[in-house]
Amino acid sequence: METNFEQLSKTVSHALRHEPQFYNLELDNQGWVLLSDLVFALNTKGIRVDENLIITMIEQSPKKRHQILDGKIRAFYGHSTKKRILKNSAEPPDFLYHGTIQSSLNSIMEKGLLPMDRQYVHLSLDERTAGVVGSRKDGKLVILKVNAKEAFLNDVQFYKEENGIWLSDPIPTKYIMN
Ligand code: HQG
């Protein structure tokens, strides 16, 4: 049977970002679990995978969502677990971008950019990538320019992931340009 890699990617993200406990998994403080434990956990849920299939799924994915290192696997971003995943803080470039939709704009311009259901705000290095992120939602795309360096210099924490994605703590309105 041919593997549906998109579905497998979603399932792995579900386990590693949102509901590890559903699979009897426990993420360490950086979000890692043993790859062999993940495979075992998925098999007990009736999902027939082995380590090679997961490696192939990651390799063929157009988006870098998961990382394997030293026999462990983690999701790069997107966590919603109660226990906060630790990220490496870093000094951001002058500007970062956030793709969203028109109907969220008033709230963002009132309350700032918030992580909502996730642990961190998601930012992109360029407008094009932010456009792809924002376009996942129904509604008119809006790309916000974030005065990241200025925010950083005023104690807003930023985090750089190895796949080029930037995360941050909540961004107050004064650093957001529409
Ligand atoms: C919005 C996907 C109202 C925010 C993507 C966004 C990305 C507010 C939504 C990654 C707000 C949260 C993350 C406020 C923020 N009031 N709305 N104050 N502050 N928002 O999905 O950034 O395919 O949690 O603009 O491609 O869209 O899953 O975050 O619209 O990489 O790998 O609240 O998830 O990657 O939505 O996307 P999300 P996001 P994957």
- Helicity, in percent? 25-40%
Number of domains: 2
Average residue pLDDT = 96
What would you report as the Rg, rounded to the nearest angstrom? Answer: 17 Å
CATH architecture grouping of the largest domain: Alpha-Beta Barrel
% residues in beta strands: 15-25%
Low-confidence stretches: none
Between the first and last Cα atoms, what is the distance in angstroms? Answer: 48 Å
CATH topology of the largest domain: ADP-ribosylation fold
The largest sheet is: 3 strands, antiparallel
Helix and strand pattern: HEHHEEEHEHEHEEE
Number of strands: 9
Q: Class of the largest domain in CATH?
A: Alpha Beta
Strands of the widest sheet, in order across it, are 1-3-2
Question: What is the overall shape?
Answer: elongated
Cofactors, ions, other ligands:
ligand HQG
The number of distinct helices, counting runs of at least 4 residues, comes to 6
Instruction: Classify the secondary structure makeup into a structural class.
Output: alpha+beta
Descriptive key words:
single chain; 178 residues; alpha+beta; Arc Repressor Mutant, subunit A; ADP-ribosylation fold; 2 domains; three-stranded antiparallel beta sheet; elongated; binds ligand HQG
Please, could you describe this protein's structure?
Helix content is 33%, strand content 19%. The protein is of the alpha+beta class and 178 residues long. Strands 1-3-2 form a 3-stranded antiparallel β-sheet. A 3-stranded antiparallel β-sheet has the order 4-6-9. Strand 2 and strand 3 form a beta hairpin. It is elongated, with a radius of gyration of 17 Å. The site of ligand HQG has 17 residues, from helix 4.
